[in-house]
Design a protein that fits this description.
- The chain is of the alpha+beta class.
- It is 33% helix and 27% strand.
- The chain folds into three domains: 1-35; 51-171, Glutaredoxin, CATH 3.40.30; 179-450, Rossmann fold (3-Layer(aba) Sandwich).
- Helix 2 packs parallel to helix 5.
- The protein is globular, with a radius of gyration of 31 Å.
Length: 505
């Protein structure tokens, strides 16, 4: 009888949870047929639409169609891209409540239809049957809205795909495209081609000469690399632009460097007094940082001179961002070239809102007075003195000018930050500049989305003391565990022997 009841209890213990699980799954499936939701457990929720995308979707007031041209017989990694694309397009469609629709084009006459839409086939090398073959494949998409269209000719990766799609949608539904200007000063040559190309994805971009009046439709100006004073007309036109509520992004250092002679000297320009009027004081120094980039230095190796990579603290890698600022939210690192420290001008306190954007690390320093640029610590011991921390290298200010207009200025203390032969080649810098311009023109929908899928995960630098601690911990801990396990085993064997001895004498 006892065994019978035990069997009954066992059945109950199995049936009850099973029944609960069945009912739960049934209810979830029933709900899912009428409501669209998914749980995304990935870092940054990369498989779910961001708040920025949802905000852009709200502006779609008419039918928007996405037509996808993907070949069926794609290699494995590209087939995964197709599945991801379908998943994310389903989210666009669901959130739009019927205003956004998508379809995958039929394989019949696929290439012919794709070419009409501006999508050309790709040639990929694939390995099939132990042979390398070349395949013609299609991996593109066209977005149609009213009488306009945007094309994504190649979708080879899922990284940044949501940003690409949302940006295209925003361009289609926007009635007025924002206009920004790249300032070209007297004596300057065009050196911001990379940045112009990046900005044109989002804005109407014009190169403007400040000797002429700034057009009234320019909403923000980008300028930098100033090594001399502004002309009378340049100063006047810049002042008029700011008086009517204009905003500026400026990349400007305080020290001009010459690597050929490994020397540097302060820049003499009225731009610094202009910046002081907007709350900025750029120190006459060069910032150094233990977390930095590298340069190749020629060193004698016996009879041969070789290029040896060497850390160069004058190229700080920034990983310390203001967590409360949307402009730098999600950014993980940027590299600057010969930056100077930024402080708030003391005369502007109480009149100007000064907000730091990013800083040096906890182990940084400065060169001041005498500027020896040699990276070799044997020749230049000052390059290894890191007695400062959290020096501001980028900041923004806000103030209401004398005419009652709001001015916003963003400053990066690196004259080469936007230049083609400097920071203008860096994707991280591109993101920061795009975020900054969006902020200056008052359109922040895409700021959070741009940095959402950044995949760089740099290792955190630790002190030499911590390195030694972890080294010995990794050596000693396994040994202690083995010894401990051996002692426990010996104790158990002894206890067993004692029991057997008691039983059998």
């Amino acid at each position: 009888m006892k065994k019978f009841f035990q069997k009954i209890d066992l059945k109950r213990s199995v049936i009850a949870p099973g029944l609960v699980l069945f009912i739960t799954l049934f209810l979830l499936n029933t709900i899912s047929t009428s409501r669209f939701f998914r749980i995304d457990l990935t870092d940054n929720n990369i498989f779910s639409l961001s708040t920025s995308s949802k905000s852009v979707i709200k502006d779609v007031d008419d039918l928007l169609t996405m037509k996808v041209y993907f070949s069926d017989d794609l290699p494995g990694e590209y087939a995964n891209n197709r599945r991801y694309l379908q998943d994310i397009l389903e989210e666009y469609a669901a959130i739009s409540k019927g205003k956004i629709k998508f379809e995958f084009a039929s394989q019949e006459k696929l290439e012919e239809e794709a070419q009409k839409s501006g999508i050309a086939p790709l040639q990929l090398q694939v390995i099939e049957n132990d042979k390398v073959e070349v395949k013609r494949v299609l991996m593109g998409m066209v977005i149609l809205f009213e009488d306009k269209k945007e094309v994504l000719p190649v979708i080879q990766t899922t990284t940044g795909l949501e940003y690409e799609i949302t940006t295209k949608i925003k361009k289609l539904v926007e009635t007025n495209k924002p206009t920004v200007g790249i300032a070209q000063l007297e004596g300057q040559t065009e050196q911001y081609q990379n940045i112009q190309n990046v900005l044109r994805q989002r804005y109407d971009v014009r190169v403007i000469k400040l000797n002429d009046a700034v057009p009234v439709d320019i909403q923000a100006i980008l300028m930098g690399g100033i090594s001399d004073s502004l002309t009378i007309n340049e100063g006047k036109n810049l002042s008029e632009f700011m008086n009517r509520g204009g905003n500026i992004f400026i990349a400007q250092n305080r020290i001009k460097t010459n690597l050929q002679i490994q020397q540097a000297f302060p820049i003499e320009s009225d731009i610094f007094s202009i910046l002081e009027g907007y709350g900025f004081l750029i120190e006459a120094n060069l910032v150094t940082d233990k977390i930095c980039g590298r340069v190749n230095v020629q060193q004698q190796m016996g009879p041969i001179r070789m290029n040896v990579p060497m850390e160069y603290p004058l190229l700080p890698i920034v990983r310390n961002f203001n967590a409360n600022e949307s402009i730098v939210s999600g950014l993980e690192q940027m590299q600057l070239i010969f930056p100077s420290e930024i402080k708030q001008d003391s005369s502007s306190i109480g009149q100007v809102k000064f907000t730091p954007l990013f800083f040096t690390s906890e182990q940084s320093g400065e060169l001041k007075g005498t500027f020896n640029l040699s990276p070799d610590p044997k020749q230049n011991p000052f390059m290894r003195i890191f007695n400062k921390s959290n020096q501001v290298l980028g900041a923004r200010t806000e103030l209401v000018n004398s005419l009652g207009a709001l001015n916003q200025v963003i400053l990066v203390s690196d004259s080469e930050f936007m230049a083609d032969n400097g920071g203008g080649r860096s994707p991280e810098n591109h993101i920061f500049i795009l975020n900054s311009v969006d902020y200056l023109i008052g359109d922040q929908d895409l700021i959070a989305l741009r940095s959402r899928e950044i995949t760089s995960r740099p290792l955190q630098d630790i002190s030499d003391g911590s390195k030694r601690t972890w080294k010995w911990a990794n050596i000693i801990t396994p040994s202690l565990l083995i010894i401990g396990f051996g002692l426990i085993r010996m104790r158990r064997q002894k206890s067993r022997s004692d029991v057997l001895e008691e039983l059998y004498g």
